Amino acid sequence: MAEKKGQGYLKYVFGGLSGMGATVFVQPLDLVKNRMQLQGVGGAQKEYKNTFDAFTKILKKEGVVGIYKGLGAGLLRQATYTTTRLGVYTGLNEKYRQTTNKAPNLLASMGMGMIAGACGAMVGTPAEVALIRMTADGRLPLAERRNYSGVFNALIRITREEGILTLWRGCIPTMGRAMVVNMAQLASYTQAKQYLVSTFEMNEGIKMHFVASMISGFITTAASLPVDIAKTRIQNMKTAPGGVPEYKGSIDVLIKVSKHEGVFSLWKGFTPYFARLGPHTVITFILMEQMATYYQSYLAQSKV
Q: 152, 202, 228, 258: most buried, per Cβ within 10 A?
């Protein structure tokens, strides 16, 4: 992450803006990933053969607007979740360096990533619930669709029709996923940068940020996809007649998916997930690093 010092709130501003910028590019892949994770529930016949088939069918059936369905929720999620997690992580990272006068080791980076992820997930879960539902709506029969007109309509209707606590449905698995994602993503990014400097003598810049981000994106995809599937299934589930939920919790999701769909289904949607997470990680970190660099340059010039 950027190591330059600036006003405290800018850590959050830069984090949120970089995440929102990245989301504009990868939203279609997020929609495809969610659709693929939701297919085959309970052993039902799968709708899509692979990522390309899913993308093609969704585009043909729902058009360009359909492939970007849930963009507003995606942007709100970044404005809440990413703003919080990157701001908290950057702040903890700088505090660690000031206290110890050295760069954080892997264990410290993982711990800070988990704390940042948990904080971000708590703040961002309502937007996450809206995002999951909006991206999943097009796969449902017309009579069963929720037909939210936008992210705020979704939040209002969920609150009115299902209660305000539904906005935090799946908060625990979301926090679990966020802790895994941020532990892997932020720690691997920090460590990858240090490795590239010490081993290949790379200098700070877009080239280093790109390589470190791609390494981070792949590690994060492999580590977090099973918990992401659990989160997606729980947030999209409907309560069965009699008030019985489809899943009891994350472990129940993982067991049922493994039993009915096969163990490797826990990595269902790996390609769109990595195709989304990889570029999202790259764009997010590059934008954040560049904003921090330009801000420091501006401060330096203003003092001349």
A: 228
Contacts of 216 (CB under 8 A, 6+ apart): 184, 185, 186, 188, 189, 192, 281, 285
Q: What is the rounded CA–CA span in Å between residue 64 and residue 71?
A: 12
| Location of structure tokens 């988990």 | 114
Is the CA virtual torsion 259, 262, 267, 270 positive or negative? Answer: negative
- Rounded to 10 deg, the angle between the 206-236 and 171-200 helix axes is 160
CB 219 within 8 A of CB 186: no
- Alpha-carbon distance of 63 to 282, in angstroms, equals 27
> Could you tell me the pLDDT band of residue 240, with boundaries at 50, 70 and 90?
low
In the three-class reduction of DSSP (H, G, I as helix; E, B as strand; rest coil), residue 66 is classed as helix
Distance of CA 60 to the CA centre of its chain: 26
List, for residues 132-185, the tens digit of each pLDDT value: 999 888 888 888 899 999 999 999 999 999 999 999 998 988 898 899 889 999
> CB count, 10 Å around CB of 39?
18
**Which residue bears the tokens 């996923």?**
177
Tokens 């909006």 label which residue? 134
Q: Identify the CA nearest to 210 among candidates 281, 114, 129.
A: 281
pLDDT over 90, % of the chain: 50
Q: Is the pLDDT of residue 108 over 90?
A: yes
Q: How many CB atoms lie within 10 A of CB 31?
A: 28
Residue 7, pLDDT score:
64
- 149 token code pair: 């007109």
Structural contact between residues 156 and 126, judged by C-beta atoms closer than 8 angstroms = no
Residues in contact with 8: Cβ distance below 8 Å, sequence separation at least 6, in sequence order = 91
